[in-house]
Amino acid sequence: MDENEARGVRNSDILMPYYKLGKPLGYGTFGKVKLGRHVMTGKKVAIKILNTQMLDDVAIQRVQREIKILKSFSHPHIMRFYDVIERPSKIYIVMEYVNAGELFYYIVEKGRLDEDEARHFFQQIISAVEYCHLNMVAHRDLKPENILRDSENNIKIGDFGLSNVMKDGHLLKTSCGSPNYAAPEVISGDHYAGPDVDIWSCGVILYAFLCGRLPFDSDNISSLYGLIKRGLYTLPSHLSPAAKDLITRILVVDPMKRITTPEIRRHPWFQHNLPWNLAVPAQVMQRARRIDEDIIQKMIGLGFNQEKVIESLQNKQQNQMTVTYNLLLDGRPRESNGYLRAEFLEHMTMPGLHHYAGPSSLTGSNSYSNLFENHGASQPRQAPSQGSWVLGIQTEASPREALTEILRALQRLNVSWKKIGPYNMKCKWSPTISGYFSVPRLINIDLNHAPIEDDGSSDGGSSNQSRPTIKFEIQLYKVREGRYLLDVQRLQGVPMLFIEICYLFLMELRLA
């Protein structure tokens, strides 16, 4: 080996001390993906190499968002993130290697899938999507091109670059993703809930599995959008009645009437031949993260310190100890991870719980003679029954009646508000020394204007400036036909003061 070759090897070792780079796996706008090998374990990995000089601010944000999301994820059907190495001109993202390619090419090759194989993939996709939503992440670009298949015919969802972290009480606005898989509310430019648009995309994917083509397709983008907005598609005669029913319940234009993930889980077509590990609810899978003693022993054999490995895992640190642990863990067959089965069996044998049928409602909750019902966290837990879990205040009154009652309560508490949407307002409250009920009750309520205009400026007087202030947001949601949910979210101020105003607000609504 000459001097230049030797220098090249040394530079490569310095650049990637823990990984050996192999053949290219693919190319993109900003870089390429290469096959890699983890030196210590010999496990194959996929290494995404990005040229930072070609990345604009938007692309950098996408990369950072994807890394942040995947670092926190651990699910058998989501591509595992292992490591990131930053250099002056390049970023190396080390990911799980999935060796059978995109699901898209598999569908193109087969034409269409039989229902058993389509169900096999769809069950795994829903399990992964439910896990994302549990962790407050909406993928927003679900399509077969972003789903990889391994040699055992299992899938892994990847490409979280367009994903967004969801916040309680807030809807998303950005129009992104692939047009053919985009929900009507996304292409219409409306505010939308992340889980709703992911479920729509899952419905399009299921249709593609079973039919070998897309439900909405046109060379003209305006025509395509028209088909999606009107929900116009045809169902082939070869589909089973159960498959047709599930597709038609997912591809519903109105997101409020669209089937939810728990309802998909309960659907007979989905339940057929459901593997035990996919019957585990995402909440249980989230808890089932015990440290594997066999893997720890293997790492000790590789020269790692046991205490430091366990400390790194418990603190969720990113270093070669956690990378090696995860590579060894992922290299084992899933069935050998018995702790997850134990968690599942423990969940199945809980008193009053016979099978996972999605979130269920609280029974025996208080009812009230006025417009609202309190379903807050203070309610005692009961055995599950038909319905849905709720956290907040529900009403069967019309939105206008509900808002009128809400504004009357705010007015009695001397809360100022500013309307920011038809059923959404920002509020500000400062407790007075003399009491909270000094403002007289007004009979005529103007739903469009607050009694005190809050434009974000100073309150005006020194006494007001010296008083503690809490800012919060109120939103009225439609949870199903004829039923609405009131959500209150703290924006700014001392948490105890927020609890105080919430208690007073509930008193005014006759719920405390």
TrEMBL record:
Keyword annotations for this protein, in alphabetical order, are: ATP-binding, Kinase, Nucleotide-binding, Serine/threonine-protein kinase, Transferase
Is Nucleotide-binding tagged as a keyword? yes
Q: Where is the UBA domain?
A: 290-331
Task: Extract the Pfam families matched here.
Answer: KA1 (PF02149), Pkinase (PF00069)
Q: Where is the Protein kinase domain?
A: 19-270
Give the matching CDD domains. Answer: AMPKA_C (cd12122), UBA_SnRK1_plant (cd14335)
Reaction it catalyzes: L-threonyl-[protein] + ATP = O-phospho-L-threonyl-[protein] + ADP + H(+); L-seryl-[protein] + ATP = O-phospho-L-seryl-[protein] + ADP + H(+)
- Give the record's GO biological process terms: intracellular signal transduction
- Enzyme Commission code: 2.7.11.1
Q: Mind telling me which Gene3D superfamilies this protein's record contains?
A: Kinase associated domain 1, KA1, Transferase(Phosphotransferase) domain 1
Transmembrane ranges? none
Which residues are ATP-binding? Answer: K48
Q: Which terms in the Gene Ontology molecular function aspect does this entry carry?
A: ATP binding; protein serine/threonine kinase activity
Q: Which GO terms describe its cellular component?
A: cytoplasm
Q: Where is the KA1 domain?
A: 463-511
The answer on whether this UniProt entry bears the keyword Coiled coil reads no
Family annotation (InterPro entries): KA1/Ssp2_C, KA1_dom, Kinase-like_dom_sf, Prot_kinase_dom, Protein_kinase_ATP_BS, UBA
- Family per record: Belongs to the protein kinase superfamily. CAMK Ser/Thr protein kinase family. SNF1 subfamily.
What is the protein name given in its UniProt record? non-specific serine/threonine protein kinase
Which species is this UniProt entry from? Acorus calamus (Sweet flag)
